[in-house]
Amino acid sequence: MSGMKNTEPADAVDFKSASGSDKRIINQFLKEVKGFVDWILLAGAGPATHTGRKVIHDPVWGTHRYDEFEVRLIDTPIVQRLRHVHQTAFTYLTYPSTQHTRFEHTLGVTAQMGRLFRALSEKFEHNNTGENKKDLLEDKLRRTLRAAAILHDCGHGFMSHSSEEFYGSHKEIKTLKKYHPFKKASPHEIMSYLIIDSAPFRNFLKQLKDSCNADIDEELLKNAIVGHVATPFDHFKIDMLNGPFDADKLDYLARDGYTSGLPLKIDMDRLWYSLDVNDVGEFKRLTVDWGGVSSLEQIVFSKMTLFPAVYHHQKVRTCDCMLKAILEYIRDNKISLRKNNLNMDFGRAIHSLYFTDAEFFEQLSNKNKNKELQLLLDALRYRRLLKRAIVISFDTVADENQLYEFMKHQKSDPGFYRDLACRIWKAAGEPGLKYQVWVDCPSDVKFDFVDDTWISPLSKGEAPMPLTDFFSMKQYANQYKHRKWRGHVFCRAEDTEIIAKACVKVFKKSPLNMRFKPLAFKLCHLAPPPDLI
Amino acid sequence: MSTICVPSDVVLGVLCQFKGNTRFPADVPKAHTAFCKLANSEKFKDLFRGFIFDESRQYPYSADVSFALDRLQQASLLACINPRLNEFMVSESLSKYKASLLKSGMFSKDEIKLLKDASVHFLKAMRE
Structural domain tally of chain B? Predict the structure, then answer.
């Protein structure tokens, strides 16, 4: 196609079999991941002193036991680092109690994985259909999936998804996503996989397995994290960590809802009671009995509620843009941050792993000779947030075609929005810094899992039914999210009026040809410019 | 700022070949499967070269197809407002894109012909 940006697709090959320039990019990245793992495993903490089991109390799920192998895995610096990475990034600047970290979430996912496994075991113990499903649940599988739960988020950079928005579009991640097993994986899942697959971590895991006499399937562990189904028989195992109602989702919905004060409710008992494993075509899948459909609906409703209220809240989006501004400033101005004798300019995806949230801000604070950087940093630290100059949504744009033209770049060409923001800043007469004007097009909330959710057959011999046959949950959720989705232009509080006027001019030009309704400004508490439509 | 063709434009290019108010089942897995089949065919593989399909799962999933269908719905170009929410309907606005495909500079004449052929295969697969 005349302007198509994407490169040639890779066939269904493993990333290790990539060739040409892809191979060079991937090999370089694998080296960087190895360097990171080498560094963090020897981070100076020394071996953990605790041996034996541990009981950990959690406000969301109560008391849960972790065996010695799991405790020693949790005690590695790779997982301990997650104690200092906020689960929901900057949401605490809007919902002050969302201070929870990836570490608590990790423990929660492991607890949920344990309960999911136990629920299935109990079900199969009392199975009266004549089918023997008990053999599906070996102890090795339980141990593998719990280890996968412990390690599933170890590839998160500082500030979780906020830094992921930045490094997710780096070439090493884009290249890996063309290959198995990363075709459906998100950037942090790819990082987690590569950390576990690195030679130093494999050595560590081998020693740990030997000393705890623990048997785990390392391939399945990694595939569960990235959601890769290696064989049709394995699908139900992958479903438990990376499926329609997986342990990860169950924890983050409950935990993020609890800390943000949103009263979300999922009937977990009913869900556990109704779990099953059935054949769907050639695949073995995790399914739910008819009686558990209401729990599945609650999962969808919870996700629907959390996105507009928390993850895509305009103040949260502002903070994400302000973080990207800092990262962009560092990159553009070649600010030197040193870690492990490396210069961290965030031009490489791996750089985000070297920092925890506090370390990132602390390191930058030491660069206080740079007044502009300090300005950007203090604005985020002391919550002097950018404000909305315009709202871009279904009900604020004059023509639907224009909205599509605006949104279509979000996945494959995020640089488009930066270019647009710079044009707006220039058209407004360059107020402040260019890093203080942002066009935000949030990623789409995904409800794809609804299309892939299966209901157990009522009687033996019948085939499972897709959830969508009961109720068009996916389309219902889509209708909701489409009307809740909002893009924005953010800028300094004192510039909102001139930036709003500049937006009208710049958006009106090709290729967007976009015109706004008065509501686009009213939602920002601004008077609509007179020459609007 | 130049016009850039992104994978969702290919989905748009296929769907805009239909007349306004054309309906087909809102069966998303089937849509992914139909696009995957096109992407794997010798005739259309160049047209879909930016698409990545994960064929290891229950149905061949593509984040590009998912993104395109979602964004087209979000912009009300592809509707799903029928009472049971089980059919997609091509809007009049979407079908008007057909006239501007060549002018937009995103597709060549040959590619537009391919889009037309692909749309026939796609609709047939969706209605099977």
Answer: 1
Choose the closest CB to B52 out of A177, A410, A510. Answer: A177
List CB contacts (< 8 A) between A409 and chain B.
4, 6
Structural domain that includes position B100: 7-127
Tokens of A70: 């799991």
Q: Do A6 and B50 touch (CB under 8 A)?
A: yes
Q: Is B20 on the interface with A (CB under 8 A)?
A: no
Nearest CA in chain A to B44: A1
Q: What six digits make up the tokens of A110?
A: 């492991």
What is the rounded distance in angstroms from the CA atom of residue A409 to the CA atom of residue B5?
9
Question: For position A12, what pLDDT does the model report?
Answer: 55
A293 CB-near residues (< 8 Å, 6+ apart): A455, A467, A470
Q: Could you tell me if residue A447 is left (phi over 0), alpha (psi between -120 and 50 degrees) or otherwise beta? A: alpha
What's the CA gap between A49 and A51, in Å, rounded?
A: 7
pLDDT band at B81 (very low <50, low <70, confident <90, very high): confident
Does B1 fall in a domain?
A: no
For residue B2, being part of any structural domain is answered with no
- The distance of B48 to chain A (nearest Cα, Å) reads 9
Considering the domain delimited by A15-261, tell me its CATH architecture: Orthogonal Bundle (1.10)
- B58 interaction partners in chain A (CB closer than 8 Å): 235, 280-281, 283, 285, 452
When pLDDT is averaged across residues A233-238 and rounded to a whole number, the result is 96
**In terms of DSSP H, where are the helices of A428-458?**
448-451
Give φ, ψ of A99 to 5 degrees.
-95, 5
Residue A3 has its nearest CB partner, among B49, B70, B106, at B106
DSSP A307: I
Q: What is the pLDDT of residue A128?
A: 65
The helix/strand count (H/E) of chain A reads as 23, 11
Helix and strand tally (H, E) in chain B? Answer: 5, 3
Tell me the pairing of strands A438-440 and A283-288: unpaired
* CA pair distance B68, A434, nearest whole angstrom: 31
The CA-based angle A333-A315-A328, given to 5 degrees, is: 10
Residue A400 has pLDDT above 80, yes or no: no
Question: So where are chain A's domains?
Answer: 15-261, 386-445+485-533
Which tokens is A173 given? 């991640």
Q: Report d(CA A211, CA A276) in Å as an integer.
A: 34
Q: Say which DSSP state A10 is in.
A: P
Q: What's the half-sphere exposure (Cβ side, CA atoms, 13 Å) at B15?
A: 28
Whether B6 and A181 lie within 8 Å, measured CB to CB: no
B35 within some domain = yes
What DSSP letter does each residue of A362-407 carry, written as one string?
A: HHHHTTTT-HHHHHHHHHHHTT---EEEEEESTTTBS-HHHHHHHH
Asked if residues A322 and A385 have their Cβ atoms less than 8 Å apart, the reply is yes
Is B35 exposed, middle or buried, given 0-12, 13-18 or 19+ CB atoms closer than 10 A?
A: buried
pLDDT tens string A84-137 = 999 999 999 999 999 999 999 999 999 999 999 999 999 888 776 667 788 889
Residue B68 lies in a domain: yes
Looking at residue B65, the DSSP 8-state letter turns out to be H
Q: What is the mean pLDDT of residues A491-504?
A: 96
Subunit contact A9:B52, Cβ cutoff 8 A: yes
**Residue A301 CA, distance from chain mean position:** 19
Give, in degrees to the nearest 5, the angle at Cα A331 between A327 and A333: 115
* Closest Cβ opposite residue A408 in set B9, B50, B111: B9
